[in-house]
Design goal:
By secondary structure, the protein is mostly helical. The chain has one domain. Helices cover 72% and strands 3% of the residues. The chain has 19 helices and two strands. Strands 1-2 form a two-stranded antiparallel sheet. The longest helix is centred in the middle third of the chain and has 34 residues.
């Protein structure tokens, strides 16, 4: 079994074993699940060892699955998907560890669903057969719906149903478009195939491309979520348990942006070019609108949820400016946002477990009683607001540079989102952590314990390392992005590597 298959099926097999063992003690189910997620992470780290970064798919696995239907088991990764897989396997054990105490009912069932969710996420990132991708895409929906609906907050059923309705409408449209695409390709190629590389070779008329791009794009836009398809996200985040929120923000949302760059854009390049101004404008609206909405939130978790909408607007803008700098910045931004957003949700969970409220007005001056927690929260916040020296700065800096080449006006508007992001995050930090202790209950809050520190410290380290030394990551992305841009018909490529890497690192370490 290849390394990618190991990453996919080890969690799934473990989930099946847990399901078949009756009356399994809760502690044992926790230990087994956590151990498996850790093992999966260490297996994934091996991908870095032999990764050549040529732009072609590596670690490929092929097997006939349903040959009569043209469906194959085809896996592979390139510089676009490599770090998204690593981010998934990195966050999975940390998010599960955060639920060690907070999930205290139906622990075995939660563990099974969590492992299936990990299988679906990794499978979607490495699938090169579109039927296989769709299978894993849908597989992710079921565990997340139950995680929200069973272990969520007071309005968990409403949030879960809203999540289902938004996601399923887009997914069904994508399925219809996929079947049409395969049927059309069969008429051109002379054989039926769902394989991505086979479908790439098919030339589709402009009108057909537009319809297919819109169908695929809607499914991915909902998952991102791109304005105006974002309204399901705050409810899902607020009601989901901490581990669910962390994985939803850290990983699941990236499958929307990944779907655009992996499938929708290269399969329908003419339509992608035609829709680029529209999508860029929607991304800009999302950046500014979500930031303004975040400013007026009184719930910390909802504020962080709207910040995700704003930050992912930068990713979408970077992908659709069609140059190396912006595209690499968008992909880097996916990974960075995975760390910062997951870190913020995990930290909100820490304080919620102690006070059972997320209202900003209920806090004040807690840096005096929780200095370690305040330090960790502030460090992750700095990454979120793109302070030089953090991962957030690298991604947003490259996106803004790429956007400026596409349209100086777009870059200027996007830059205002950076300012707004600093405003609402630092405003929230000031009210929650500094000043006099405003509530008697805040004087007795215990600081972070070792388990909670074990969850957040690796994320903080990741944010800083990616910000100070982004070159090793950017280098591995560039060849794959070059191939992607060539598929989009772009031959003039401005390097984001070499001297530009040193520029980013200098700016990250020296400041504005």
């Amino acid at each position: 079994m290849g390394i990618l298959s190991q990453l996919i099926f080890l969690p799934a097999i473990t989930a099946l074993v847990l399901l078949l063992i009756p009356r399994l003690p809760e502690k044992l189910s926790r230990l087994i699940t956590f151990a498996v997620t850790v093992v999966v992470f260490f297996i994934s780290v091996q991908l870095l060892g032999d990764f050549a970064g040529t732009g072609a798919f590596e670690y490929e696995e092929r097997a006939s699955w349903l040959p009569s239907l043209g469906i194959s088991y085809h896996l592979g990764i390139d510089g676009i998907s490599l770090f998204l897989v690593l981010m998934t396997t990195f966050l999975s054990p940390l998010a599960y560890l955060s639920a060690w105490k907070s999930i205290n009912k139906r622990v075995k069932e939660f563990s099974i669903l969590y492992l299936l969710l990990q299988t679906g996420m990794i499978g979607a990132f490495v699938s090169l057969d579109l039927f296989l991708f769709y299978f894993f895409w849908e597989l992710m929906l079921v565990p997340m719906v139950f995680i929200i609906g069973v272990w969520g907050g007071a309005r968990r059923i409403y949030a879960a149903m809203k999540f289902v309705l938004y996601t399923i409408v887009g997914s069904l449209l994508m399925l219809v478009a996929l079947l049409f695409l395969v049927r059309y390709a069969a008429g051109v190629n002379g054989y039926v195939s769902f394989d991505f590389e086979d479908l790439l070779r098919v030339s589709i008329p402009a009108r057909g491309q537009m319809l297919l791009f819109l169908a695929f794009g809607l499914a991915f836009a909902v998952k991102v979520p791109l304005f105006p398809f974002h309204t399901w996200l705050p409810d899902a985040h607020v009601e989901a348990p901490t581990a669910g929120s962390a994985i939803l923000a850290g990983v699941l949302l990236k499958l929307g942006t990944y779907g655009f760059i992996r499938f929708a854009m290269p399969l329908f390049p003419d339509a992608a070019h035609a829709m680029a101004p529209v999508i860029a404008i929607l991304a800009l609206i999302g950046i500014v609108y979500a930031a303004l909405v975040a400013m007026v939130q009184q719930d910390i978790k909802k504020l962080v949820a709207y910040s995700s909408v704003s930050h992912l607007g930068y990713v979408m803008l970077g992908l659709f400016v069609f140059n190396m700098t912006g595209t690499v910045g968008g992909i880097f931004g996916m990974v960075s946002h995975g760390l910062t957003s997951a870190g913020l949700f995990l930290l909100v969970g820490v304080i919620y477990e102690r006070r059972h409220t997320r209202e900003i007005s209920e806090y004040g001056g807690i840096a005096r009683t929780m200095p370690v927690f305040a330090t960790m929260f502030f460090l992750v916040t700095l990454g979120s607001i793109a302070l030089p020296g953090t991962s957030g700065f690298v991604g947003e800096f490259l996106v803004l540079v790429g956007a400026f080449r596409f349209s100086p006006l777009y870059a200027t508007i996007a830059a205002t989102g950076v300012v707004f992001g600093a405003v609402y995050m630092l405003w929230m930090v000031r009210r929650v952590f500094f000043g006099p202790v405003t509530k008697e209950a805040n004087r007795k809050i215990p600081d972070m314990n070792l388990r909670e520190l074990a969850v957040i410290i690796p994320i903080v380290i990741g944010i800083i390392v990616m910000g100070v030394k982004p070159a090793p990551i950017l280098d591995r992305m560039e060849s794959a992005v070059s191939v992607h841009l060539e598929r989009m018909g772009i031959t003039e490529i401005v390097e984001a590597g070499g001297a530009d890497h040193s520029t980013v690192e200098h700016a990250s370490t020296e400041g504005d």
